[in-house]
Structure formats: C-alpha cells, structure tokens
Design brief:
Layout lengths: L7 H16 L13 H4 L13 H18 L4 H10 L17 H15 L1 E4 L47 H7 L2 H8 L12 E4 L9 H12 L9 H5 L4 H11 L6 H6 L18 H7 L1 H10 L5 H4 L4 H10 L15
Antiparallel strand pairs: 1-2
Helix pairs in contact: 3-5, 3-8, 12-13
The structure holds zinc ion (ZN).
The site of zinc ion has 6 residues, from loops.
Length: about 350
C-alpha cells in the first residue's frame, strides 16, 4: 500500500472486510448496516467512525513518496527513480509516465495532479516560480485564472514583478489582476536573494510540512465532502464503555433498529411501538418519549428542566445529556418505577 498503487478491486475487497467487521456480517448471515458506509468513513468529529478508505490511504502514501522525491533528491532511491524515469523534467512541474515504466512511477504519475492541488510555492528569491503558471499566492489557484488582460507573458517569474527599489510593482499588479488579488500579493514580503531559493510547501499543515494524515484528509474531502453536524468530540470524549459510545453514535444518527426504521426498510413490520401501541417506535420514542421511558426520566430529571428535556430533537437531546451533570441518581435502589 505504501509503495504501489493498489488496484480498485483489491481496495473494494478490503473495504468489504472492514464493513463486515463493523456490522458483524459473517459467511452465514448478513446483519443490518445501520449507517451508510461513507458516513462511517467520515472523521469522528464529522459524525463518522473515522474508518480509513484504503484507496485514499494508498494515494496519501504515494504523495509521501512524491514529497520526498522533491525534498530529498540526494537520497539514493530518489536519484535512481529520477534518473531512470524523470527524463530531465523537474518533478515539481511535471511527472509523466510511459506504459513501460515501473508500476511505482506510473502510480506516482497518476497521483501527481492531485498532489499539485495540495502544494503551494513558498517564495524565497522568487526566481524559480512562474508568476502566472505556478500556485504561489496562498489560498488561491494559479494567477493565470485571474488575469484581467488577454495577453500575458507566461515566462515571467515572481522575481520579475518587482520595481527598481525591490518592492512589488504595484502598477503592473493593478493592471493585470483584480484588487483583492493585488492585496493578497502585497501582503506577502517581496522576494529577495537573502531568502534563498523558492521551496514547496504543503497546504494541509500549519508547518507546511507533509504528513500522511493531512494528505488523507485533503484527498478525502475531495472524494466525499465533509458532513458538518456539530462537535462530535463530546460523544467520543465521553468517559464510558466503547459499546455505549457506539450506541449513542447510532442514536445520534437515529439509526437504531427500531420498528419505525425497519418498516421504512420495507420489512413487513408495523412501525408502531410494541410497548405502548400508541406511537411509531422511533429512536427518540424508544429512548425518551414512550410512556414507559418517560416514567423513568421524570424520576431523574430536575423538575425545572423537564420541559426543555422533552423538547429537544434526538441529536440535541443526546449531546445535552452527555454534557449535563445534574441528572439525579435513581432513588429506588436500582428498581425502575412501576
Ligand atoms: Zn412506546
């Protein structure tokens, strides 16, 4: 996984094993998959279980090799790869493969375009960075896409856009770019020789250094946009048995296998609660609103809080319960009220 591109069929098979493990499927029988797999693969803080997708992990590992090829060109393995397949191209600008190249080089070439989206040139002396074609203004794409004139000189380096005093050439910038981009450029210090050569920075970390974890996150966001649903740190930070955390996670998503849920899935079953026979058995009904559950809660919840307690939706209710400290302990020696 770290040194070769894993075929999609194998990644799919690994994911199938992951899924079977999470939901308890066996050769003999399939259990209900209560939450979509893409949600399970979201980070915990975004409502998932933080399970890694193999093909994205694979891409992140390959990006690490690209990063090292650029930053450690004197290592023996880098020298071998670059001299054999680099074809005198600057790997920062391109990574092209031929059908007869090694599997590793072909894999690197495949992931190179995605890698490019996550790097930004850090300006030193500005001589090796192309003003229009390289990405060097933080949080922006290449300036080529923002040019306000039809004709531009694509051989211009960042260093070339300085006036005689060594400051940014404001006139040139204003004539060629919109005001907001001019201000973004002006916010950067003008390149000088003292700053050394231009380098490549990673956008996924504050230090601009590459990490596999940040590469995974960046690639994962492209593949599946993040679902932002409140701060799940509360849920996973709760000090208690893991199986209860997992139960709460299912409850927050309202995916406990209740009658309402099962009837939605087309299983021939009544959605009604079998205990009270009055309402549909939803997650919130079974945990809070069923008459039998309510009887327990009113013994525990402070009286001045009861109205709020029963007005929350399922997600709010669970998060609120995790953080509240003033629920009273049962007063009947562990026996539930009759
Ligand atoms: Zn009920």
């Amino acid at each position: 996984m770290q040194y070769a591109s894993i075929p999609k069929s194998i990644c799919d098979e690994i994911e199938k094993i992951q899924r079977n493990f999470v939901w308890g499927d066996t050769e003999q029988g399939r259990k209900a998959h209560l939450i979509g797999w893409d949600m399970c693969c979201q980070q915990k803080i975004h409502g998932g279980l933080g399970i890694k997708k193999p093909h994205i992990m694979n891409e992140a590992f390959l990006m690490k090799i690209l990063w090292n090829l650029i930053h450690k060109p004197d290592d023996l393995w880098c020298k071998v790869l670059l001299s054999k397949y680099g074809r005198n191209n600057d790997i920062v600008s391109s990574c092209i493969s031929q059908p007869y190249d090694s599997q590793l080089w072909k894999a690197l070439s495949k992931v190179w375009h995605s890698f490019q989206r996550h790097v930004v040139r850090q300006i030193g002396n500005g001589r090796n960075t192309n003003f229009w074609l390289d990405k060097w203004v933080p949080n922006n794409v290449e300036l080529l896409h923002s040019a306000s004139r039809d004709h531009i000189d694509t051989t211009l380096s960042v260093r070339d856009v300085l006036n005689q005093d060594g400051d940014w050439d404001v006139r040139f910038l204003s004539e060629n770019l919109s005001n907001d981009i001019v201000s973004q450029v002006m916010a950067l210090s003008a390149p000088t020789d003292v700053d050394g050569p231009d380098t490549l920075g990673w956008i996924g970390t504050n230090t601009h250094q590459f990490t596999v974890r940040s590469a995974y996150t960046l690639q994962h966001v492209i593949a599946m946009p993040l679902v932002v649903e409140g701060d799940r740190k509360i849920l996973w930070g709760w000090k208690g048995p893991h199986r209860i955390q997992t139960f709460m996670w299912l409850a927050v998503h309202e995916r406990i296998l209740t009658n309402a849920r099962r009837s939605k899935w087309g299983v021939r079953i009544s959605p009604t609660c079998a205990s009270c026979m009055r309402e549909d058995e939803t997650t919130l009904h079974v945990l809070r609103d069923c008459v039998h559950a309510t009887r327990v809660w009113i013994q525990l919840v402070p009286s001045n809080y009861i109205t709020n307690f029963f007005s929350f939706n399922c997600r709010e209710w669970i998060f609120d319960n995790i953080t509240r400290r003033d629920l009273e302990l049962p007063r009947m020696d562990g026996k539930l009220p009759s």
